């Protein structure tokens, strides 16, 4: 089956999957773009499940201050410094800091169970799993701190 280059490029940019994975998914889906995208996401989530439990000793500390009234520090960890420097990882750290700022969870377990503020159909844990599927490494929220003026 002939794979259209435009579909291959679009699928790769939207999923961050490798070229051969995108081509294989498009071929398996018979050229159906949506089906191919779902295949890649399913495979990514399967791979993410295999990553659970791997040691996370690298990462970043993300700081967020909202209107000078609420401040948050989040320690987000991954397996390698290489992934810690990627845009996807940095964006995830920022989104988690926003989540902590707005929802004020009591601990990491509660944070991960919260509905994601930008898409209530997802939990924060689902958001983390999506990034794990993209970057191919385990990611954990180690801890966070939230301080509000007057609290």
Model description:
- By secondary structure, this protein is an alpha+beta fold.
- It folds into two domains: 5-51, Orthogonal Bundle (Helicase, Ruva Protein, domain 3); 58-148, Elongation factor Ts, dimerisation domain (Tetrahydropterin Synthase, Chain A).
- Helix content is 52%, strand content 23%.
- The protein has helices at 5-15, 19-28, 33-51, 81-84, 87-103, 108-113, 124-135, and strands at 58-66, 70-78, 115-116, 119-123, 139-148.
- The strands form two sheets. A three-stranded antiparallel beta sheet has the order 1-2-5.
- The longest helix has 19 residues, at 33-51.
- The protein is elongated and about 65 Å long.
Task: Note the topology.
Layout: H1 5-15, H2 19-28, H3 33-51, E1 58-66, E2 70-78, H4 81-84, H5 87-103, H6 108-113, E3 115-116, E4 119-123, H7 124-135, E5 139-148
Antiparallel strand pairs: 1-2, 2-5, 3-4
Helix pairs in contact: 1-2, 2-3, 3-7, 5-7
Q: How many separate helices? A: 7
* Terminus-to-terminus distance: 63 Å
Count up the domains: 2
| Estimated share of beta-strand residues | 15-25%
Name of the CATH homologous superfamily of the largest domain: Elongation factor Ts, dimerisation domain
Give the overall shape, derived from the CA principal axes. Answer: elongated
How many E strands?
Answer: 5
Please give the CATH class of the largest domain.
Answer: Alpha Beta
- The ordered string of helix (H) and strand (E) elements is HHHEEHHHEEHE
- Name the CATH architecture of the largest domain: 2-Layer Sandwich
Q: What does the average pLDDT come to?
A: 87
Q: Helix/strand/pairing class, anyone?
A: alpha+beta
List the uncertain runs: none
Strand order of the largest sheet: 1-2-5
CATH topology of the largest domain: Tetrahydropterin Synthase, Chain A
Report the biggest beta sheet as strand number plus sense, adding barrel if it closes: 3 strands, antiparallel
Rg is 18 Å
Query: What level of helicity do the residues show?
Result: 40-55%
């Amino acid at each position: 089956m002939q794979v259209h280059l435009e579909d291959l490029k679009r699928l790769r940019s939207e999923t961050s999957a490798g070229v051969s994975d995108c081509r294989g998914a498009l071929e398996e889906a018979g050229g159906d773009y949506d089906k191919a995208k779902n295949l890649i996401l399913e495979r990514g989530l399967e791979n993410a499940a295999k990553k659970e439990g791997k040691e996370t000793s690298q990462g970043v500390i993300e700081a967020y201050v909202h209107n000078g009234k609420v401040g948050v520090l989040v320690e987000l960890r991954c397996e390698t410094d290489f992934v810690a420097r990627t845009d996807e990882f940095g964006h995830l750290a920022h989104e988690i800091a926003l989540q902590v700022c707005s929802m004020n969870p009591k601990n990491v377990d509660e944070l991960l169970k919260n509905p994601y503020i930008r898409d209530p159909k997802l939990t924060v844990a689902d958001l983390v799993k999506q990034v794990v599927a993209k970057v191919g490494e385990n990611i954990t929220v180690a801890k966070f701190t939230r301080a509000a003026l007057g609290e």
